[in-house]
Design goal:
Elements lengths: L1 H20 L2 H4 L2 H17 L6 H7 L7 E3 L5 E3 H6 L2 H5 L3 E15 L5 E14 L2 E2 L2 E13 L2 E10 L4
Parallel strand pairs: 1-7
Antiparallel strand pairs: 1-2, 3-4, 4-5, 4-6, 6-7
Length: 162
């Protein structure tokens, strides 16, 4: 009888330790991560209203693998190339007026370390007092969780052809 009790307790202990060691499924919580991804997406466009360049740089991958494709077929390779646009955005001639992100869809990799999104963007701005808007712009992107922060590693903007 004692050997059965010992075996039962041993089996319980082994199950406990195995379940405690394999916490990978518990680590990713979509209810926690999805709002964080949404916030990074919003910060990547909303920073411009008050020209909070540090906020922008906090959500863009600061490495040579960053990639962005704009509607005019401009391709930005790497963070240093991305920074070259800073003079335009920070110019007094550029004014961010408002933005609206519509139909945002976010998906996550099984590991929970990669997210990708699609939405429609209305980005309302002016340049030297003239409208400089992107309306119904298709916007896709990929984010990677780095050091517990969601970072945009790739974005693509396009206009639908009529």
């Amino acid at each position: 009888m004692e050997s059965y009790s010992f075996k039962f307790i041993l089996i319980l202990c082994i199950n406990f330790f195995l379940s405690a060691c394999d916490r990978s499924e518990d680590m990713f919580n979509i209810d926690i991560e999805k709002p964080l991804v949404e916030n990074a997406i919003h910060n990547s466009i909303g920073w411009a209203k008050n020209k909070e360049i540090d906020l922008l740089y906090s959500v863009i991958a600061n490495d040579p693998n960053y990639l962005e494709v704009d509607p005019n077929n401009r391709i930005i390779h790497g963070f240093q190339d991305f920074k070259k646009t800073e003079d335009f955005w920070m110019s007094d001639d550029f004014k961010a007026i408002s933005y609206d992100i519509k139909d945002l869809k976010i998906n996550f990799s099984k590991s929970g370390e990669i997210a990708w999104f699609f939405c429609l963007l209305d980005d309302i701005n002016s340049w030297k007092g003239q409208p400089a808007n992107w309306v119904n712009t298709r916007w896709t992107g990929v984010l990677e969780k780095r050091n517990d922060n969601w970072t945009i590693v790739q974005m693509h903007f396009s206009f639908a052809s009529e």
